[in-house]
Design goal:
- There is one protein chain.
- The protein is mainly alpha-helical.
- The chain has one domain (about 5-65).
- It is built from two helices and two strands, in the order βααβ.
- Strands 1-2 form a two-stranded antiparallel sheet.
- The radius of gyration is 15 Å and the shape is elongated.
Length: about 80
């Protein structure tokens, strides 16, 4: 896979960061005991902040405004 939709990548990173925070806040040691409905609810409440953090994190490694990383007319990162 040489192309990943930028929106998908940012959202995936945001969800992972938020999930880690949710697990830490709730002192969860066994991932099988995570209440996924509550975890998703937590993400929905925090979504904008985590999407922003995810974008900024990705931007540390790639200049997302650089046309060489985002093909003109597409929203994919290479």
């Amino acid at each position: 896979m040489d192309k990943i939709p930028l929106e998908y990548l940012i959202e995936t990173i945001a969800k992972a960061l938020c999930f880690e925070k949710y697990v830490a806040l709730n002192n969860i040691e066994d991932f099988e005991k995570v209440n996924m409905m509550k975890a998703v609810e937590y993400y929905e409440e925090q979504k904008d902040a985590y999407l922003h953090k995810s974008y900024e994190l990705l931007n540390l490694f790639h200049d997302l405004d650089n046309d060489s990383l985002i093909q003109e007319g597409t929203d994919t990162i290479h």
